[in-house]
């Protein structure tokens, strides 16, 4: 079974669930009386927005803002992405029954092999699953008018959710141990503090991998995960079980948009539990083969750290050597594209602004949401 890693958190969850149950019971018994805190004009405005079918209301991809979009623009962007036949394929039938049968056969085999027990098999068998739904989060930090959309597939309580959860629990500690891994902003800032002074000529560099989650071909992603499990010394039966689950989660990933079912043929769905460790394993494998072994990297890179698809680097070399290395990164695999940013004095990374003090030591500022947008615009 997926481990419950933190007893205090599990206790807190249990207490919250208990209090919610008590609240619902008391609410149905008429113990509570509510009064709106909205002015009539505010309530009318919200009701009108909710009833207006020409609008789509979604949270922004970054920053926590609420975005009200013209429905025509939203649908145009959604179909622009879904019509990419390399990534998505429309299907005339609901594939749920077919996927359920494949899961049943896979679990029966691994239970007979002794790889899993009946308890884990029960966890991996989802009864009454929901249909995954595709939607977009507007990237207003990229463009305010007709913003591009970040594709999300809501997989919670879907038939592929339990296998993705098990894979996440197995892969996460392995990818956390990879050499370029950054857990969060606090860990990144600890690395910056530990660097001390750097040469005044050093370049502050970031790369962003464009649409990483939908760019990973199944073949390369599966090989990267198999490599990760192999290098970690995972038992051959567990390794085979993981690869069988991963193939299922990737190749049978389906969802609905409007009245049409789709199969995702490349990449992994944002919203799947396994998506982050899968993407990290893929990038780690890429780095081992095409980054760490490159002569320019070995000569000029002082530090290279990555948060999923965002890379921070300090480059102790001339600009032309950095440009040459960037061309190398973008020429390895056609589906993998890197966007380079660099500056002598400052660079934004995650939600921080990294600056040189007196041209040598590094300092940082935690950016607010507005600051992050302004920094992005200024670049």
UniProtKB/TrEMBL annotation:
Source organism per entry reads Ranitomeya imitator
Entry superkingdom: Eukaryota
Q: Which InterPro entries match?
A: RT_dom
Show where the Reverse transcriptase domain sits.
Answer: 118-374
State the protein's name. Answer: Reverse transcriptase domain-containing protein
């Amino acid at each position: 079974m997926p481990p419950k890693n933190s007893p205090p958190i599990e206790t807190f969850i249990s207490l919250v669930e208990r209090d919610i149950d008590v609240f619902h019971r008391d609410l149905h018994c008429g113990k509570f009386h509510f009064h709106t805190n909205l002015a009539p004009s505010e309530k009318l405005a919200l009701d009108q927005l909710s009833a207006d079918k020409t609008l789509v209301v979604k949270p922004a991809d970054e920053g926590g803002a609420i975005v009200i979009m013209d429905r025509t623009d939203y649908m145009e962007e959604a179909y622009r992405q879904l019509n990419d036949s390399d990534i998505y394929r429309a299907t005339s039938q609901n594939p749920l029954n077919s996927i359920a049968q494949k899961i049943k056969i896979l679990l029966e085999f691994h239970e007979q092999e002794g790889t899993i027990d009946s308890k884990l098999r029960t966890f991996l068998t989802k009864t009454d699953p929901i249909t995954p739904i595709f939607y977009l989060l507007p990237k207003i930090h990229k463009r305010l008018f007709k913003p591009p959309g970040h594709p999300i597939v809501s997989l919670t309580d879907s038939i592929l959710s339990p296998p993705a959860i098990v894979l996440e629990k197995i892969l996460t500690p392995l990818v956390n141990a990879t050499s370029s891994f950054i857990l969060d902003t606090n860990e990144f800032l600890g690395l910056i503090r530990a660097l001390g002074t750097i040469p005044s000529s050093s370049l502050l560099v970031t790369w962003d991998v464009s649409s990483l989650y939908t760019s990973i071909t199944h073949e390369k992603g599966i090989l990267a995960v198999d490599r990760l499990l192999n290098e970690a010394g995972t038992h051959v039966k567990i390794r085979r079980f993981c690869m069988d689950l991963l193939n299922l989660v990737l190749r049978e990933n389906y969802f609905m948009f409007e009245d049409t079912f789709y199969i995702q043929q490349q990449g992994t769905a944002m919203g799947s539990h396994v998506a982050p460790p899968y993407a990290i394993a893929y990038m780690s494998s890429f780095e081992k083969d095409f980054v760490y072994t490159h002569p320019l990297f070995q000569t000029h890179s002082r530090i290279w750290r990555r948060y999923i698809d965002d890379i921070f680097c300090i480059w102790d070399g001339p600009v032309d050597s950095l440009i040459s290395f960037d061309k190398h990164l973008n020429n390895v695999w056609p589906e993998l594209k890197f966007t380079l940013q660099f500056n002598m004095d400052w660079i934004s990374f995650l939600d921080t602004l990294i600056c040189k003090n007196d041209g040598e030591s590094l300092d940082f500022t935690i950016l607010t949401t507005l600051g992050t947008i302004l920094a992005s615009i200024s670049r």
